[in-house]
UniProtKB/TrEMBL annotation:
This is Gamma-glutamylputrescine oxidase. Keywords: Oxidoreductase. It comes from the Bacteria. It holds the Pfam family DAO. PANTHER family: FAD DEPENDENT OXIDOREDUCTASE DOMAIN-CONTAINING PROTEIN, SARCOSINE DEHYDROGENASE-RELATED. It comes from Chelatococcus composti.
Amino acid sequence: MPSLPAGGNLYETTAPPLPPQPALDGSAQADVAVVGAGFTGLGAALTLARAGLKVIVVEKGRVGAGASGINGGQIHPGQRRDQRWLEEKVGPMRARALWDYAWEAHRWLFQLIGEEAIACAPRRGLLTLAHRPSLFRDLAADAEHLARHYGASHLTVIEREELSRYTGAQGYYGAVFDAEGGHLDPLALTRGLAAAALAAGARIAEETPATAVARTGAGWRLATPRGDIEAATIVVTGDGNNGRLVPAVADHVMPIVNFMVATEPLGPLADAVLAGPYAAADTRFVVNYFRRTADGRLVFGGGESYGAALPRNFARRVLRRMLPIFPMLADVRITHGWGGVLGITSPRLPFVRRLEPGLYVASGYSGQGVMLAPFTGRAIAEAILGDDRRLSVMTDLPVPRLPGGRLLRRPLLVAAMLGFSLLDRL
């Protein structure tokens, strides 16, 4: 087995630096207070600041310290659930609106990266690998459905015997290659969004955790240990972390801890792992996902835990999933390992709501945050500015309360995830 990693988050070595932002120092006033300097919060702050509003973003750590700066960096076009599932759950018209929303988010993300010259190494190309024959048939049927009903011409169905042209991954029965999917450095994207928001006039207060949200006669008060912010509107973001701040988030979003490792640069071996600089994810319920970086490393994520902290043996857990897929990496050095808290919902759709006049929440992207979250922040900002046409597409998604309430939701989730993990192995 490869040696365990000595380094932490690989992205800290690749993302351009962002100067530290002063913590809040005493009370303040704003048009909008935003909780969380991640994808959603920064997308909202950028849009609002460009419109001339006074915006303060509070972040309990540094910019990108949460889910936005530690994730797999994958760009999956569409929503987290496939269109046939959405058509059944919400009807063809709503499913089409969700498809159009996701594609607008996709276009806007790449446009924004170009306009702001965000050095986040975006790459095109995404494989979805089927770990059972029946799931390959489902993938192929989804691709055909998208081509027929949504005009999707960017998908290629790959039979099992053709897989070696794309990847040396073992144990898969076929795949779909998405030419419009891809990957990027998520911490670099987060810092780039922050720099753009700052340039537009927003204020970001790092090391300033939000502790309470309360309505006042004229609007809202956001409490922090470093002073309170009086604002007309509050936007609460942060995947999996804000259930205590806004109880409705805890009712619908479960925090989980994911973990990842990165290999040393693979040299000629990189082509045997992935034939191009693209990303891949499989069809397991507890998904394996990986991508090839610009310098030829493999970044691999797999497994998750349901406590509040990164387990000490997380790198071994990842390697136990990685090596059966890539046995050729048995002697490769693992240089980095990291993880953190993400948020999931039971249907794997984000929980986006206007809970009360002047109070918005967005959380639980369930692995789809790189593409959807910045644009959803923009949509929230547009709603604050008086145009809720985009946001309305997301605010009535069917995201039920987690079963078991706040007391039993975690043991029930653990039992369910262990069951699905067993099915994955079988």
